[in-house]
Amino acid sequence: MLDAVETAAARLDSVPGPLFAEERTALAAYEWVAGHCSHSPITGVAALARPDDILIRAEERAARTMAIHEKRHGGVRRFATGGAHALAWVLGESDDQP
To answer: Minimal CA–CA distance to 5: which of 41, 33, 28, 35?
Structure first.
């Protein structure tokens, strides 16, 4: 799965022009899962190594909760939605790769 995550990150990173909020968070999530970021994309938890499935699941749930919170600004919801979708794909809970 790590190879697929790296490929997904490279695909998003090569998109010309600015990324949409959902894409930026998906890219950040992929980079975090691959061990290339020092903090998780949604909660900002420090990462000393590649996250395991328990941490990925916790981050996905935090993103999902943030995405459905009706009082959040639309941009925040879109940002969280991108992370939730990307992490659900990483966990094998979705076939739709953002």
So the answer is: 33
